[in-house]
Automatic annotation (TrEMBL):
Subcellular location: Cell inner membrane; Cell membrane
Positions of the ABC transmembrane type-1 domain: 16-208
Family (UniProt): Belongs to the binding-protein-dependent transport system permease family. HisMQ subfamily.
NCBIfam families assigned: HEQRo_perm_3TM
GO-annotated cellular components: ATP-binding cassette (ABC) transporter complex
SUPFAM superfamilies named among the record's database cross-references: MetI-like
Signal peptide: none
Protein name, entry field: Amino acid ABC transporter permease
Pfam families, sorted: BPD_transp_1
Keywords assigned: Amino-acid transport, Cell membrane, Membrane, Transmembrane, Transmembrane helix, Transport
Residue stretches spanning the membrane: 15-46, 58-79, 187-207
Record Gene3D superfamilies: MetI-like
GO MF terms, alphabetically ordered: L-cystine transmembrane transporter activity
Organism: Ancylobacter pratisalsi
Length: 226
């Protein structure tokens, strides 16, 4: 068996374990919390009082205007200087959640804003409250439009979690770094790590296409090409 193949086979288990135990949970938790935060921020931007609008706009401006890696460093390495010490995983989770929240808030704000005012007026005309109109009329239509950009954000987040290695989270990329430190074969190991990221992204892209086709049956967006 060639040396490079034997090395890749021996490295597969620790890399896949790191992906399963750290990369996947970090991605899922960050996206779920970030999307929830983004939804709240979007509603405040669209319907909130001016003081709150100013606060969330400042938050979005800061997060979108600074690199994610810098944000992670500020949380993990910077906050201890003012007495706030976080473990690596919670620090990464907070950083990714804040980042996802800022970007998804713009997506949610755009798709809700794209729903014609007539949909709101029609809902009010049959006696719905604002909350009912939002939940029963506007959000179902907005969801069909939001699926492609939100799916893209989720797939990007899977790859962005590699930055958590910089704050000592033992996820997939840091596991690869540790193997490189002992095997002295960076090309082989990093190619293997890249292939695992590629496999995860490919599965998610396939699921995205199926989801878009499902919503496309009900007059949503044009289904994506595979």
């Amino acid at each position: 068996m060639p040396y490079w193949l034997e090395l890749m086979l021996n490295s597969a288990a620790p890399l896949l374990w790191a992906a399963l135990v750290f990369t996947v949970p970090l991605t899922l938790l960050s996206f779920a919390l970030g999307l929830t935060l983004g939804f709240v921020v979007a509603l405040i931007r669209l319907f909130g009082p001016k003081p709150l609008v100013a606060v969330v706009r400042f938050y979005v401006w800061i997060i979108r205007g600074t690199p994610l890696l810098v944000q992670l460093f500020l949380i993990f390495y910077g906050l201890p200087s003012i007495g706030i010490v976080l473990d690596a995983f919670p620090a990464a989770l907070i950083g990714f959640t804040l980042n996802v929240g800022a970007y998804t808030s713009e997506i949610v704000r755009a798709v809700i804003g794209s729903i014609p005012n007539g949909q709101w007026e029609a809902s009010y005309s049959i006696g719905m409250t604002w909350q009912q109109a939002l939940r029963r009329t506007v959000l179902p239509q907005a969801l069909r439009v939001a699926v492609p950009p939100l799916s893209n954000s989720f797939i990007s987040l899977v790859k962005d979690t590699s930055l958590a290695a910089a704050v000592t989270v033992p996820e997939l990329f840091q596991a690869a770094q540790r193997i490189v430190a002992t095997s002295y074969e960076p090309l082989i190991i990093y190619i293997e790590a890249a292939l695992i990221y590629l496999a995860l992204s490919s599965v998610l892209s396939a699921l995205q296409v199926r989801l878009e086709r499902h919503f496309g049956r009900y007059g949503g967006f044009v289904k994506a090409s595979s």
